[in-house]
Amino acid sequence: MAKVLSIANQKGGVGKTTTAVNLSAALSTVNKRVLLVDIDPQGNATMGCGVNKYNLEHSVCELLLDECTLEQAIIASEDALIDLIGANTDLVAAEVVLLKNTGSETKLKGLIDQKRDSYDYIIIDCPPSLNMLTINAFTASDGIVIPMQCEYYALEGLSSLIETITKIQATSNPNLEICGIIRTMYDNRNNLSNEVSVQLSQHFAHKVFKTIIPRNVKLAEAPSFGVSAINYARSSKGAIAYVALASEIIRRTQ
């Protein structure tokens, strides 16, 4: 049965989508069956998997509005060797409808539960904000993977995110856990990064992944080609780091 993990941080620009795409691709390289669900209206994870978000016939929007079936919404990403449910700006309309309906926070969970036996991991790329889409993702998930840069503003955002997770645990998903915190875009030459990394390890020791994702040109380049870094530059430091992260996650979730 699949482990459902949301990749989330309410602060943007922390490598959230990069983590969702490359973690999914890395898991597939060790023969894990992976479904990536893009519920960010920006659709960056969709594009990062080589799928044109503007040409989606059936997206997560139609799925949430009961305008298509799961089978219609799931498409194969030939690059990342994973399955994908894509997203685009149409998803904003779905959120408006969900806000009007009672009990809509469990909509995504009901859909994902139908496919738990078909995959080993279901990864959800969340929007960089707390909204009904994020609440749906957290309600559907077993755990949260939190990418964060080692800077002081990011620490403040982490506290806010943990408060949100606590609220979801108290209301719609008591089994939700923080799977781990992953340090991203890391530059060990930066004293501030090193200081914040130490603080993070002191306060959340058992939750911080040992793997650190470095600042890496190949990670930044890969999305412009519509591919994961795993396939774009497998021997790059960024790609190797995400393979290591996948191994850590497998150990934590078995």
Please explain how this structure is put together:
Helices cover 44% and strands 18% of the residues. With 254 residues, the chain is an alpha/beta fold. The N and C termini lie close together (11 Å). Helix 8 links the parallel strand 6 (143-148) and strand 7 (177-186). An 8-stranded mixed beta sheet has the order 3-4-2-5-1-6-7-8, sandwiched between helices. Helix 1 packs across helix 12 (237-253) and helix 6 (107-113) runs parallel beside helix 7.
The average pLDDT is 92
Multimeric organization: single chain
Q: Tally the helices: what do you get?
A: 12
Query: By helix and strand content, what is the structural category?
Result: alpha/beta
Share of β-strand residues? 15-25%
Shape: globular
For the biggest β-sheet, the strand order reads 3-4-2-5-1-6-7-8
Helix fraction bin: 40-55%
Number of strands: 8
Low-confidence stretches are none
Q: Termini distance?
A: 11 Å
The biggest beta sheet is recorded as: 8 strands, mixed
Pattern of helices and strands: EHEHHHEEHHEHEHEHEHHH
Specify Rg, calculated over alpha carbons.
17 Å
